[in-house]
């Protein structure tokens, strides 16, 4: 058996109707439900999650270094040069729970009083403007030939939903949150003559005007999905479900 992929996982980490255990509805699980209710159900009700992808260690390294860089200016209560460059009315926010909110599997948490479930999400960064509103910031990194100036691809809509869930979570915790959020997008430069042991990035700040009005209903739909005792329909564009169906058809011949 693979050391990285165990099926099924411990039942105490699955959703059990009417019972409290270790299960939480994370931001990524909300996105999974949006993509494919069947994969979401298999993962969270039956404990059979999608096979994991390869870890993006370079992306994680960029995230870690960006956090350290913004933390330097956070400690001094001053603007980061990127904020100055784009004329942003904000500084890196100082908050006693920031490290907790950044931690995977912890993050910002909200106990839903009606549904009795905990919703969570781990942010990358938080800024605060002169009006005292918190600004959600997300780090992204890639390497493309073209300059990144907007999130205009359909697959990038998930990034926008990600930010809006964070905005919703902060508001549910009683904080004033700006609709305006930012993506700090780092694009690896491959036009250099040589590697020379370093990779340089062009950093772009992309604004997103969030609208979290969809989040509450999506959470309720995800919760209802897990309460039923039969598999829901797959997502229309789910490659995993298409693969499982293809295998099923081949083996039944």
In short:
The chain is built from 8 helices and 8 strands, in the order βααααβαββββαββαα.
Overview of this protein structure:
Helices cover 35% and strands 17% of the residues. With 253 residues, the protein is α/β, with parallel strands linked by helices. It has a single domain (11-251), classed as Lambda Exonuclease, Chain A, CATH 3.90.320. Strand 6 (134-142), helix 6 (157-172) and strand 7 (180-188) form a beta-alpha-beta unit. Helix 1 (27-35) crosses helix 2 (37-44). It is globular and about 60 Å long. The two termini are 28 Å apart.
Spatial order of the strands forming the largest sheet: 2-5-6-7-8
Instruction: State the major sheet.
Output: 5 strands, mixed
CATH class: Alpha Beta
Low-confidence residue ranges: none
Helix/sheet category: alpha/beta
- The pLDDT mean sits at 92
CATH second-level architecture: Alpha-Beta Complex
Which H/E pattern describes the elements?
EHHHHEHEEEEHEEHH
CATH topology: Lambda Exonuclease, Chain A
Number of domains: 1
Give a count of the beta strands, DSSP E runs of length 2 or more: 8
Net shape: globular
Helix content: 25-40%
Rg, Å, rounded: 20 Å
Count of alpha/pi helices: 8
Distance between the termini: 28 Å
Please indicate the percent range of residues in DSSP E strands (runs of 2 or more): 15-25%
């Amino acid at each position: 058996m693979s050391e990285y992929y165990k099926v099924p996982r411990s039942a105490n980490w699955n959703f059990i109707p009417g019972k409290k255990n270790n299960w939480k509805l994370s931001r990524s699980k909300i996105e999974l439900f949006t993509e494919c209710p069947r994969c979401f159900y298999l993962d969270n009700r039956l404990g059979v999650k999608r096979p994991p992808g390869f870890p993006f260690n370079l992306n994680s390294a960029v995230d870690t270094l960006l956090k350290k860089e913004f933390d330097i200016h956070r400690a001094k209560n001053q603007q980061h040069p990127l904020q100055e460059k784009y004329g942003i009315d904000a500084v890196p926010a100082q908050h006693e729970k920031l490290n907790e909110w950044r931690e995977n599997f912890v993050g910002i948490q909200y106990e839903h009083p009606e549904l009795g479930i905990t919703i969570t999400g781990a942010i990358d960064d938080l800024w605060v403007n002169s009006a005292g509103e918190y600004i959600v910031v997300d780090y992204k990194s890639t390497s493309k030939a073209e300059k990144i100036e907007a999130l205009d691809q359909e697959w990038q809509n998930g990034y926008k939903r990600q930010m809006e869930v964070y905005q919703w979570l902060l508001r549910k915790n009683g904080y004033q949150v700006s609709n305006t959020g930012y993506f700090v997008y780092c694009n690896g430069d491959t036009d250099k003559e040589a590697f020379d042991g370093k990779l340089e990035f062009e950093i772009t700040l992309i604004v997103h005007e969030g609208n979290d009005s969809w989040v509450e209903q999506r959470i309720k739909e995800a919760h209802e999905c897990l309460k039923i005792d039969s598999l829901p329909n797959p997502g229309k564009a789910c490659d995993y479900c298409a693969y499982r169906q293809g295998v099923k058809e081949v083996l039944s011949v």
